[in-house]
Amino acid sequence: MDWEILPDRPVYLQLVEQLELAVLTGEYSPGQRIPPVRELAAEAAVNPNTMQRALAQLEDRGLLETHRTAGRTVTGDPGRIAALRGQRAAECARAYLAAAQRLGLSPAQAVALARQAAGPDAHHETEV
Amino acid sequence: MCTDCLSCQALSKTYGRRTALCGVTFAVAPGRITGLLGPNGSGKTTLIKLAAGLLTPSGGAVSVCGTPPGPASKALTAYLPDRVFLPLHCRVEDTLALFADFFPDFSRGKAAAMLADLKLEPRMKLSSMSKGTLEKLQLALVMSRRARLYLLDEPIGGVDPAARAYILSTIIRNYSEDAGMLLSTHLIAEVENLLDDAVFLREGRVVSAGLADDLRQREGKGLDAWFREVFAC
């Protein structure tokens, strides 16, 4: 996968975010085995200990699982992934509203603009 | 795992009246990569030479896996000097034989694979190589040892940016998990994502030592940016 690690924030936080995104976008699909720590670390050009720390955190959140024999895999539970997707999408929505407000739009105007941008089909579906 | 791979206690070194290192204390634990960072002439190479057993301390103590510098500590230490150390009349294959002779922990297979990646042919003569190519060869040899402590003095100083990426990933893939690594450089931006810990030196004294991610969190900036600020001329 493509990594972009900036130096000005703790590296492990950025690894957590980017791994999370890879699971949400399906780059690593549910149940898929992920590469060993050292391989991932070399790919991202970061320290294996830092990568290990990021993976452990994702395990704590239930997004990754460690199996005695099969190594580390993405969770097979679609509910967990869906819940996290909802969280991330909500963060994006809040960020959009905040940015629109800084430009002088009211929340209602921002919502109307989002509808307009989504096009005519978007009205039929309401739930994410 | 018990002892630290490298431990420095109030380590000092003077050259005549000039003080190169003064009261330096820190340790490198197994499995950790520590950056030794500082401007030119801040004592980085002196410290690494003390750890490698090439210099004797003027004060304080240094030990490798609990062993004071000597033949036993050198057998545990893979040291990459900051200059060319291989005889230039050799060919690449001779240097492999040399390392295999000297170091029981040297893996010829590993070295051969790395040299193939770097497109260094066994029959190539060292005298015809550029400085950067020689550095790649030296690093490949040093990283092919299964040591307990790696001392890398400016491992990327002379190589082109494309080869740097390969060298850094070589370092990540090849150091053993029970080994510690001390890596000195002034090219901080290139290596900072690789480091567990960072020790900053100025005029032979430790300015800051600790977890790299802690410094980022505390200062809100990267090691390189912080360095440029604190060490501004």
Low-confidence blocks of residues of chain A: none
CATH class of chain B: Alpha Beta
- Give the distance, in angstroms, between the N- and C-terminal Cα atoms of chain B: 42 Å
Number of helices of chain A: 5
Strand tally of chain A, please? Answer: 2
Spatial strand order of the main sheet of chain B: 5-6-7-3-8-9
Secondary-structure-derived class of chain A: mainly alpha
Tell me which protein chains meet in the greatest interface and how many residues each side has.
Answer: A-B, 19 and 25 residues
CATH superfamily of the largest domain in chain A: Winged helix-like DNA-binding domain superfamily/Winged helix DNA-binding domain
Q: Structural class, judged by helices and strands of chain B?
A: alpha/beta
| Global outline of chain A | elongated
Helical proportion of chain A?
55-70%
Q: How large is the share of residues in beta strands of chain B?
A: 25-35%
The biggest beta sheet of chain B is recorded as:
6 strands, mixed
How widely separated are the two ends of chain A? Answer: 27 Å
Notes on the structure:
The complex is a heterodimer of chains A (128) and B (233). Chain A folds into two domains: 11-76, Winged helix-like DNA-binding domain superfamily/Winged helix DNA-binding domain (Arc Repressor Mutant, subunit A), CATH 1.10.10.10; 81-123, no CATH class. Helix content of chain A is 56%, strand content 6%. Chain A contains five helices and two strands; from the N terminus they run αααββαα. Chain A has helices at residues 11-24, 37-44, 48-60, 78-102, 107-118; strands spanning 64-67, 71-74. In chain A, strands 1-2 form a two-stranded antiparallel sheet. In chain A, α1 crosses α3 and α2 packs across α3. The longest helix of chain A has 25 residues, at 78-102. By secondary structure, chain B is α/β, with parallel strands linked by helices. A six-stranded mixed sheet of chain B has the order 5-6-7-3-8-9, sandwiched between helices. Chain B has a three-stranded antiparallel sheet with strand order 2-1-4. In chain B, α5 (131-143) runs parallel beside α6 (161-174). The mean pLDDT of chain B is 91. Chain A binds chain B through residues 5-12, 38, 41-50, and chain B through 31-33, 165, 168-169, 172-173, 177, 189, 192-196, 212-213, 216-217, 220-225.
